[in-house]
Every structure is written in C-alpha cells, then in structure tokens.
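Changelog note: in this version the structure field was regenerated for every chain. One regenerated record is shown below for reference.
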Amino acid sequence: MASKPSILVVSAHAADFIWRAGGAIALYADRGYRVRVICLSYGERGESARLWKQTAMSVEKV
C-alpha cells in the first residue's frame, strides 16, 4: 500500500503560514496531501504590539 504524500509547514508565528503560504497549503490539501503545520510561537512578542503598550502587561495576558 502506497503512503499518502505529505508536506510539513514550519512557521515562526501562527499567522505567518496563513499569509505567506495559505494558498499553497490549501492546494496541496485539496490534492490529497497530508498537511501538518508546526508553529514555533503564537507571536505574542511581535504581533501584539498594541497589547504591550498597556500597563502591567505580561506574556500570560497577551
């Protein structure tokens, strides 16, 4: 039995893979590939700039 083709997407932040490769990921999934996405962080440091301006903000709150 042949194994299903697969791709692995590694992304620095949760939103990065959507904006940069979402179309390609959807295309491969539609073609029957097994798709796995690994996000290395939630982007809580760089993508939440507005929250960090609030008093007494912490990583847990962001």
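Spot check on this record: The mean pLDDT is 85. The CA atoms of residues 39 and 59 lie 17 Å apart.
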